[in-house]
Amino acid sequence: MATILVLYHSSHGSVEAMANEIAETLNAQGATVRLRTFVQRQPHDIVVTKQDLIECDGLAFGTPTRFGMMAAQAKTFWETTSDVWLKGQLIDKPACVFSSSSSMHGGNEATLLNLSLPLLHHGMVLMGVPYDVPELLSTESGGTPYGATHVAGLDNSAQLTETEVRICRAVATRLYTVAKKLL
Ligand SMILES: Cc1cc2nc3c(=O)[nH]c(=O)nc-3n(C[C@H](O)[C@H](O)[C@H](O)COP(=O)(O)O)c2cc1C
Questions:
Q1: Boundaries of each Flavodoxin-like domain copy (predicted)?
Q2: Distance from residue 179's CA to the centre of ligand 1 (Å)
Q3: Alpha-carbon gap, residue 14 to 150, rounded angstroms
Q4: pLDDT band at residue 1, thresholds of 50, 70 and 90?
């Protein structure tokens, strides 16, 4: 059994909905899941510690798209992890990234690449979404080869589509499969 850290920030609930889909898929497959946020926004939030990173066997990391980049709350946390980086404690752990944006072409792919950068610096094994996930070709909203995305609309009212949910489930399944192989 592998421990997967699902680590996210969400202000309006879209990234949280994606994190919950990923966590539920992992739970259903028998993973030990740690669902963590960067800051305490809601009573049920559990704020991440560096120990969560060190102890996980795989990471799913998501934030909203903020001007084509990760949310500041996440960047602030990653900037506290240089001791973990110096010790190489995340090297060879598999990881994937996910994001939500207001608009379809508003920079969510750029954000996924931005989310990937600290993970690559830490030596993690970055995983995208392969094209054997058929929804990648049929989606009319979120879903990219760099990771799962959701298009929330200007008022954040759009729920995850069935296609977006399936892509979240596919990345969670792939992450857990690879994490177990790398144990
Ligand atoms: C400061 C700020 C910057 C944003 N930048 C973008 C952007 O570049 N492109 C975009 O499509 N949406 C942008 N948004 C909208 C969020 O990405 C969008 O509302 C997202 O779905 C929120 O996710 P959440 O519900 O998990 O908070 C921005 C929102 C804020 C507050």
A1: 4-176
A2: 30
A3: 7
A4: confident
Each residue's pLDDT tens digit, 22-44: 999 999 999 999 999 999 999 99
CATH superfamily, domain 3-182, is Flavodoxin domain (3.40.50.360)
Task: Work out the angle between the directed axes of helices 162-182 and 14-28 (0-180°, nearest 10).
Answer: 50
**Counts for the chain of helices (H) and strands (E), in that order:** 7, 6
What is the predicted ipTM?
0.99
**Cα distance between residue 11 and residue 122, in whole Å:** 26
Three-point CA angle 27, 80, 34, nearest 5°: 10
Sheet strands (E) in the chain:
3-8, 32-37, 58-64, 94-101, 125-126, 148-151
Among 65, 67, 161, say which to mutate for ligand 1: greatest number of ligand atoms within 8 Å of CB. Answer: 65
Average pLDDT score over residue span 11-32: 98
Which ligand 1 atom sits closest to the C-alpha of 68? 8
- Top mutation candidate among 67, 104, 160, 161 for ligand 1, by most atoms within 8 Å of CB: 67
With a Cβ cut-off of 6 Å, ligand 1 is lined by 10-16, 64-68, 100-103, 106-107, 152, 156
